[in-house]
């Protein structure tokens, strides 16, 4: 039987990063044993706990070793979980599994910057799971060498935008990436992927370095963001046990997944269409696959697991619900500002832990092939010698047999020597690379240089551009003798001049090029100092490393990408760094705003640069916007970043909310003609509780507090046919309303002094509001060209039974009236009426369920699980009923049988059992016939004589597939029989018991 094996899930909490520390962030997670609890920073009562297989506290309780930078527990046995501890739990098991011949998969999941790469790959001396795994693997191989021959192959690839890039490829990359193909017995694989034979951990590490370098340059050239790509490292281990003549093969997939954050914001919000942000299809699909498998694991029927929907899930198919032992490490930030992301990571992982796999030991077919070829040779030799003994002159036959023998020998030798040959090649390659690395080290000790700094810490410091004595052009131009070539957005052919003269290095921007040094734009020659921060073009960030004599002991790692951005933000007048450390009480939503702002800056710079280059005449600008406006309680805490887009030609403006609105992979110039939210006003409901009408002139305020218009609106208590109530109907005590019907009309009368129209007459407006936060939204018809347009829009709504809840709501809340701006070519907003209950008379019925401002996601989840449980329960009840009836019937039969007199109950049971047994045997034999037929066809199948190596491989693949089907069917038949027998025995016992 296959062994069932659940996906193991671990969670790890990293230390605060500099940004979080500077912002005085609070730690909102705590661990106890293998459970993690996360607290909502806005509501300390709201906590969620999750239980995993492992939980690692890497947040505090560590010391950093001076010399090496190694993170170690403060005290022996302390709670801090270091890299070794994580390896012992997760890596060691994978290693042992692999040595036994199982496939294994390790996935790292979490938001960008949460520590995925730290856990998987590690930084410098803090080696992560992959290098540690390699070290131990090769160590183990050395120790067991006698018993078996081990071959290790390594490959490294990246999935970006559904394209597969071979990170170890030496040739040019094919446009559109490598193809993912499917073979019946092999499953999905990447065609033409380079797999490098390795015989030491150092070799693998060097290959990883090479791959990272490819990733870095590709990312800068394509202006791509590494946090959106998945990195896959694959170790193939083949063990040949010569004595037993078996070969075991296992694939270890090590996956550093794309950051989990963007995909959620892009996929859940309505602006997914308009923003054009490429959704990370692979990550979304992975989520869907995990959900489906988790559903299946808890017994819910599912028809289809969507493996085929994305490249990543195709390649991980066997790791998820298949032949692999799988471990997932979920990494989370401890900081309050990352609450939403961390919670979503925990939820996601919670699902993953239910998935069940069925790992099996993989026997490699190659070895069997050799075995078969050897056996055939032995047979041929026998025939040959018999021919010789008989002394018959059967020249032709002898010749043929000899030919066959040589052919087989050749095949055996090819199969055996392939590994050696490839390994030698790979080692030569490695030596070459090694020479390059030594050369680079030598240069580092001779010349000043600039070092790339990437948003992804894992890719920082990978590219070094040396500045030997003399004058150098830095820019796009390649191949000229005195140039340093760089690529990236906003980089000119000749961008700047670097001069190294008399032990001084200067930088001179050339005409029209953008150069920033330590956060300030420069246009003149400036002398560079050790550790100066350079930004060339819009986002090529480098750190200047001075002459060897100028370098101190201090490490450059504190100048990370964040540092560059904070410097830029400071230049724009936005501070939230060291200066405000004393104010530890900073509001989390404010911090989040800063965090977003800083993160968006380079994107905006990029978009503007592209606009300039493509002469689109569109300008992007970041602004911080108050979300006061969208809260019916008048709270003014929430803020959000908006990106304002202005077209210089048409003076049209548009805005997008937050990071998701800034498309990165596509043309950022989406049509900026969409309705714009200009401002909002609050119409308070309190007087309705007394059935007093309201007639108000409200100020409509824009996001910066500007007055956009005056809006006249009314709230009129009325009868059910819409007639206004009179003064006699006014209540002294609102509680009189309880349980009675309440009808209200909201009238949007007129706007005055619309700034939007004053600025340009060819514009229009609409007013939008939602009915008591109930989800139904209403927009007035559009009016154009008028500064003081009359709207006279009337909406009638009613509550059939006023509850205390509604009463409280009326007394404390407001209707939020939104002023929307329309421009040329812009379609007006229509009221989406789903979610609202409307009577036949067109009256909106106030639905109490919508009164609680928003239903938290957990509740929705809970609700749906509840309804699922309920339907399960119904089903169970039904089954129970049938069973009871059946029981009843049987008992009746039994009674008649006993009352019938002389025969003992046992007798009447036996024949029926025997019949059942006969039936299952019949089924079993029937199955066996087809199994036998399969076995026969397997036996008959041989490779054709003229087969080349490729043909053989195909044959072997096919053969192993058939074998797998065969063994599965055999197993099924046997287990069906066992099951039947068990049931019969049990029933027999039960019956004889009664
Ligand atoms: P991700 O790959 O998830 O985007 P990284 O692994 O690159 O994130 O981590 C971001 C930063 O946080 C890096 O500078 C890394 O050194 C640091 N970091 C992450 N996890 C830890 C940890 N457990 N201990 C110390 N530093 C960590
Ligand atoms: Mg990473």
Mean pLDDT equals 79
Write down the Rg.
36 Å
Shape: globular
Q: What fraction, in percent, of the residue positions are helical? A: 25-40%
Low-confidence stretches: 264-278, 577-586, 627-638, 657-672, 850-863, 901-910
Number of DSSP strand runs = 45
Helix/strand/pairing category: alpha+beta
Bound molecules: adenosine-5'-diphosphate, magnesium ion
Task: Quote the beta fraction.
Answer: 25-35%
The total of helices stands at 19
End-to-end gap: 34 Å
Tell me about the biggest sheet? Answer: 9 strands, mixed
How would you portray this structure in words?
By secondary structure, the protein is α+β, with helices and mostly antiparallel strands. It has 19 helices and 45 strands. Strands 2, 6, 9, 12, 13, 16, 17, 18 and 19 form a nine-stranded mixed beta sheet that branches. A six-stranded antiparallel beta sheet has the order 22-21-31-30-27-28, covered by helices on one side. Helix 2 (about 85-100) crosses helix 4, helix 4 packs antiparallel against helix 5 (about 200-220) and helix 13 packs across helix 14 (about 590-615). The longest helix has about 50 residues, at about 395-445. Bound molecules: adenosine-5'-diphosphate and magnesium ion.
């Amino acid at each position: 039987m296959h062994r069932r094996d659940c996906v193991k899930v671990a969670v790890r909490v990293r230390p605060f990063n500099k940004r979080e520390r500077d912002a005085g962030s609070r730690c909102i997670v705590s661990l106890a044993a293998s459970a993690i609890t996360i607290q909502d920073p806005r509501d300390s009562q709201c906590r969620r706990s999750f239980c995993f297989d492992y939980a690692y506290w890497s947040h505090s309780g560590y010391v950093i070793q001076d010399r090496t930078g190694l993170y170690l527990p403060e005290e022996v046995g302390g709670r801090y979980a270091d890299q070794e501890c994580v390896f012992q739990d997760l890596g060691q098991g994978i290693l042992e599994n692999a040595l036994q011949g199982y496939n294994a998969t390790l996935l790292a999941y979490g938001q960008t910057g949460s520590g995925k790469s730290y856990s998987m790959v590690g930084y410098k001396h803090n080696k992560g799971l992959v290098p540690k795994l390699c070290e131990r693997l090769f160590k183990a191989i050395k120790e067991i060498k006698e018993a078996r021959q081990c071959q290790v192959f390594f490959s490294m690839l990246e999935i970006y935008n559904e394209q597969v890039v071979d990170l170890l490829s030496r040739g040019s990359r094919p446009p559109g990436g490598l193809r993912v193909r499917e073979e019946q017995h092999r499953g999905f694989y990447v065609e033409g992927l380079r797999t490098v034979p390795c015989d030491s951990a150092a070799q693998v590490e060097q290959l990883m370095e090479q791959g990272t370098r490819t990733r870095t340059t590709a990312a800068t050239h394509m202006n791509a963001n590494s946090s959106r790509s998945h990195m896959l490292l694959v170790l193939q281990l083949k063990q040949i046990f010569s004595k037993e003549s078996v070969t075991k093969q296992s694939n270890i997939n090590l996956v550093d997944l794309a950051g989990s954050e963007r995909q959620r914001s892009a996929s859940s919000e309505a602006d997914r269409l308009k923003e054009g942000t490429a959704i990370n299809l692979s990550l979304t699909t992975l989520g869907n696959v995990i959900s489906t498998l988790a559903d299946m694991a808890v017994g819910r029927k599912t028809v289809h697991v969507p493996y085929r929907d994305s490249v990543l899930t195709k390649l991980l198919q066997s790791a998820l619900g298949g032949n692999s032992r799988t471990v997932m490490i979920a990494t989370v930030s401890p900081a309050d500002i990352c609450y939403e992301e961390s919670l979503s990571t925990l939820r996601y992982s919670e699902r993953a832990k239910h998935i069940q796999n069925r790992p099996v030991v993989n026997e490699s077919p190659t070895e069997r092939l050799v075995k078969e070829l050897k056996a055939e040779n032995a047979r041929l030799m026998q025939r040959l010698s018999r021919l010789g003994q008989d002394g018959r002159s059967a020249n032709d036959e002898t010749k043929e047999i000899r030919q066959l023998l040589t052919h087989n020998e050749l095949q055996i030798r090819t199969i055996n020597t392939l590994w050696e040959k490839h390994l030698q090649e790979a080692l030569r390659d490695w030596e070459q690379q090694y020479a390059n690395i030594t050369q680079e080290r030598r240069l580092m000790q001779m010349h000043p240089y600039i070092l790339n700094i990437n948003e992804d810490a894992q890719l920082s410091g990978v590219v070094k551009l040396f500045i030997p004595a003399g004058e150098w052009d830095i820019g796009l131009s390649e191949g000229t003798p005195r140039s340093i070539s760089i690529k990236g957005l906003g980089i000119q052919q000749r961008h700047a001049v670097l001069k190294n003269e008399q032990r001084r290095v200067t930088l001179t921007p050339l005409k029209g090029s953008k150069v920033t040094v330590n956060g300030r734009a420069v246009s003149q020659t400036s002398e560079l100092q050790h550790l100066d921060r350079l930004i060339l073009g819009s986002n090529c960030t480098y750190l200047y490393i001075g002459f060897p004599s100028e370098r101190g002991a201090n490490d450059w790692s504190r100048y990370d990408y964040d540092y560059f951005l904070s410097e830029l933000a400071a230049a724009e007048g936005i501070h939230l760094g060291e200066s405000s450390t004393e104010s530890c009480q900073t509001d989390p939503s404010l911090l989040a705003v800063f965090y977003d702002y800083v993160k968006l800056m380079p994107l905006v710079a990029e978009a503007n640069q592209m606009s300039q280059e493509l002469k689109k005449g569109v300008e992007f600008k970041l602004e911080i916007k108050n979300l006061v406006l969208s809260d019916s309680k008048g709270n003014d805490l929430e803020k959000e970043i908006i990106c304002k887009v202005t077209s210089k030609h048409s003076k049209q403006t548009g805005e997008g909310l937050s990071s998701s609105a800034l498309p990165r992979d596509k043309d950022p110039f989406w049509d900026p003609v969409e309705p714009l939210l200009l401002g909002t006003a609050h119409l308070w409901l309190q007087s309705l509780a007394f059935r007093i009408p309201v007639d108000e002139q409200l100020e409509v305020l824009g996001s910066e507090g500007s007055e956009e218009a005056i809006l006249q609106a009314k709230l009129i208590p009325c009868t059910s046919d819409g007639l206004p109530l009179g003064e006699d109907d006014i209540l002294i005590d609102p509680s009189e309303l309880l349980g009675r019907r309440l009808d209200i009309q909201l009238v949007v009368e007129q706007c005055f002094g619309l700034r939007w129209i004053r600025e340009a007459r060819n514009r229009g407006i609409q007013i939008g509001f939602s009915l008591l936060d109930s989800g139904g939204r209403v927009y007035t018809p559009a009016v154009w060209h008028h500064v003081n347009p009359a709207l006279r829009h009337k909406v009638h709504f009613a509550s059939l039974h006023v509850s205390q809840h509604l009463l409280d709501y009326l007394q404390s809340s407001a209707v939020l009236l939104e002023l929307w701006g329309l421009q040329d070519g812009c379609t007006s907003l229509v009221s989406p009426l789903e979610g609202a209950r409307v009577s036949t008379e067109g009256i909106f019925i106030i639905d109490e369920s919508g009164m609680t401002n928003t239903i938290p996601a957990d509740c929705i989840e809970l609700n749906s699980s509840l309804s699922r449980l309920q339907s399960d329960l119904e089903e169970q009840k039904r089954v129970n009923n049938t069973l009871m009836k059946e029981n009843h019937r049987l008992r009746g039969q039994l009674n008649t049988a006993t009352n019938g007199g002389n025969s003992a109950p046992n007798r009447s049971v036996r024949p029926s059992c025997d019949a059942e047994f006969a039936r299952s045997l019949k089924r079993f034999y029937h199955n066996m016939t087809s199994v036998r037929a399969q076995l026969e066809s397997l036996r008959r199948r041989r490779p054709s004589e003229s087969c080349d190596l490729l043909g053989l491989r195909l044959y072997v693949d096919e053969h192993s597939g058939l074998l797998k089907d065969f063994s599965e069917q055999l197993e099924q038949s046997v287990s069906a029989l066992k099951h039947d027998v068990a049931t019969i025995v049990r029933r027999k016992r039960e019956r004889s018991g009664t």
